[in-house]
Amino acid sequence: MRAAIEKTPEAFTPNVLLRPIVQDTLLPTAAYIAGPAEIAYMAQAQVVYEKLLGRMPAILPRASFTIVEPLLARKLGKFGLKIGDVFRGRQLLRSRMEEKYLPRALTRRFDAGEKALRRLLKSYRSPLEKLDTTLIDALDSAESKMLYQFLKLKGKAGRAESVRRGVLGRYEGLMLDALYLHKGLQERSLSPLPWIATYGPAFLDELSGVASVDAQQHRIVFF
Predict the structure, then answer these.
(1) Residue 7 and residue 94 share a domain
(2) Is the same domain home to 38 and 118?
(3) Residue ranges of E strands in the chain
(4) Which pTM does this prediction carry?
């Protein structure tokens, strides 16, 4: 095995626990800045480090942020949402938004109102027929007109609700794409370059100041 490694080292590759040791042998590392998963991974490799190198780099937690721009902050405030509501997923987020924005019981009220109106008009049929049979035609005509106007109003309300749901869908997508893309933190998917271009060096200064307080905690930063 030793002879083969000496002769054809390119034919060998380290496994998952040996990889960081090979890396730090070729390019010695003083400190390694890592996220939570990487810190756990390096902890598993600690025994291999001690056996083969007798040392391992200092493992430092990477500063973690969620950036909330003014538009998103306004939308969160509009619906009475917290960042944690976004992190809990699409279903809960939509439910919270609908509670704040949509008259969810309105359709049920219209259905109940239509039934009550039909019962009310029906209750007049027998007394009117006894009083004067010619009044039945007038009752049918009045019922038809009243139900027409009522159902027309119900239809308009339904269209308004549909439009609002479309608005909610856009707002929901905006929040998830900006704050919880692919069900993960921004740092997993988004580049900071657009923010640097928008806010300039002050963006990095702000993050540096926040990270200096406690780099081990995930921070929510409003701009």
Answers:
(1) no
(2) no
(3) 31-34, 58-61, 64-68, 218-222
(4) 0.58
